[in-house]
Every structure is written in C-alpha cells, then in structure tokens.
Input
Amino acid sequence: MNIAQLQRDVVAYASDIGIDKIGFTTAAPFLELKNRLKRQQELRYQSGFEEPDLDKRTTPALLLDRAESIISIAIAYPSKMQDAPKGKRGERRGMFCRASWGTDYHTVLREKLALLETFLLERVPDAKMRSMVDTGELADRAVAERAGIGWSAKNCSIITPEFGSYVYLGEMITNVPFAPDVPMEDQCGDCTLCLDACPTGALIQGGQLNAQRCIAFLTQSKQPMPDEFRKEIGNRVYGCDTCQTVCPKNKRKYNLEQPAFTPEPELVKPLLQPLLKLSNRQFKETFGHMSGSWRGKNPIQRNAILALAHFKETEAVPELAELLNSDPRPMIRGTAAWALGEIGTVAGREALRQALAAETDTEVKAEIVKASGKLDGTTEKEVD
Output
C-alpha cells in the first residue's frame, strides 16, 4: 500500500465532500496538554462538560488499538448574516452565537467523517478508525494545532489563515500511518484584544480560559445565573462571540460557502418575548436542529429574561409577572423577579409584592426580596 498516495487521495476526497481543511498528525500522547489540563482542574477552570479522565484526553492509543495517526478536519462557518432583523421596543431580540447558526455542526462534521471512514475502508479494508466531534475524549484544538490546521490563539480558539477562528473541528484516530503535517507558527504576536474585550475576564491569560466565567458556558448552565454576570449577558441567549469578533485575524472572514450553516435570521436573532412561552415540543420543533438547543429550553428562557432586563423592556413586565407568579421552575421565577427589579415599574413592584406572599422556595424568596428592595430604595433587611 502506497501511504503517500493514499494520503493525497484522502486530501482530495476531503475537499470534494466539503471539508475546508484537513491535516495529519501522529497518535503520540499530548504530554504538554496533559500538564495544562491538570492545572486547569486544580484551578477549577473547567466547565464540567469535558471528559474527566486526562489519560483518555491525551493518549490516543487508549481510544483505538494500535493507533498510528490522527486526521484533523476543519469546516468553516459564517461570521456574517444577511438581512439580520432589528429589534425595537416591544420586539426586542436575542442572539445565538455564530457557532449555532444553521444545522448543528456535530451532525454535519460527523457525516463528513463517516464519509472519510468509508473512503478509507474501501482502500484499506483492515483499517481501524474512531471519529469524534467536540464531545469525544480528545481535545479538538490540540489535535488541530499539531496537525497544522491553525495555531492555538490567545482566545483559546484555533485560528486558520483562510477562515480565521470561525471553524468547526473534528478528528479521526486511525491505525493507518499517515505522514504528519507541520504545526503552524503562532501569529498572535503581542496582540491582547481578546483578553481586553472579554466581558467577564474569563480569559486569564493568552491561551488560558476560566470556563466558569465564560459567557459561552454561563449561557448553557442550567443553574441560576450568578449575580455578578447577569448584566454582562446582554442579549445573548446562547454563546458568546466577543473574543472572536474583536480578533484582527477574523477581519473580513465571512465564510459564507457552507450552505448547511446559513443562518435563519428569525431563529438566530429570535424575538425574546415569544421565547418565554415555548413548550418543550415547540422549542424542539423550532430550534432542535441548531447546536444551541442541546441544553433544552430552560437556559434559553432564563437568558431571554436577562436580555429583557438588559433592554429595560417595560412591554415585557406582564409576562415576567406571570412567570414570577405561576411558572413551576424556581430558576425562572427567581430570574423573573430580578428582571422586574431591573426594569423598575409600578406593575413590577406589585407583582413582586404578590409573589412574596405566595412563594415557598427559599432562593426565589431571596430574589424577590432583593428586587423589591431595589425598587423601594430600601435594604434587604428593611424589606424583611
């Protein structure tokens, strides 16, 4: 078997099926990465979504017997939306981050990797492969960096010369011994725009992220939003693009070539108030094909309430009052209480007063007391 020719054939086929970049690296352990991940665990900077076993995250041979190499792929996604709807009073809009535009990228990349697997098996019948996208054990960025897809940037993304950091990553471990590509040189230089622009200071230093402070993580959490971050969420209902949009390497990288990721404007910039009323079924039918739906409707609805407070949207007070007094979810009731306190209307004050008399959840009562105190210009103690 001519491995060099096979590798050229794989590269050509990848291009034919819509893979924007492909690179190869060895299946050797990621030793430096293991030390960094261990430090992240010690500092409690991880999100909790990661594979907890650091050996599995950094040792490909544990994931595939006789692993020889890893194929890394990248598919670009758009940074620009045409005909984006504009919000206005009474019709405020939220925002899904660019990584949730169009079809769920997990689905798209897995389909591409499955085609690559079939292509390889037709030429190497005894080939062994294991593919993964995002939720696998390996760190996608570490694989892509070593395979020469791009460099690992200060904003903790892989930046490619062609598409900037607007790329989805996936990889395939295989027992076919492909020749490794050369890693790309870091091109961030002394630029710190992403670190300076991060709304919550989640980027501790170049290449180090405290996921517990990252808005992208916070918008996906199913817990009540911590007080210190509520006003930083803005109108984001899922994810955050700030560290990408400020990056000079992303300037004029529009990446409009992949039809699967063409955004549906009314979905990626949805009206906020209708979001509050969606049932589980309606949410799934409307947003289920997008990657931003994976945590269900509860975090999205909580974020929509925060966004309405961000806009000081008085038109939403009746709906927020209804949530506060009748929604079965404590997180939603507590967030609605906070929002009413932020918007600050007489109707909101009355809704808080009524809710306080009926509320039984301790944490929600605390939120109502804080919001009432803010409206009354009194302290929490005096409200009690």
Observations:
- The beta strands are 21-26, 69-76, 95-96, 129-132, 151-152, 158-159, 167-174, 203-205, 208-209, 236-238.
- The mean pLDDT is 95.
- Residues 80 and 254 are 6 Å apart (CA to CA).
- The domain at 315-384 is CATH 1.25.10 (Leucine-rich Repeat Variant).
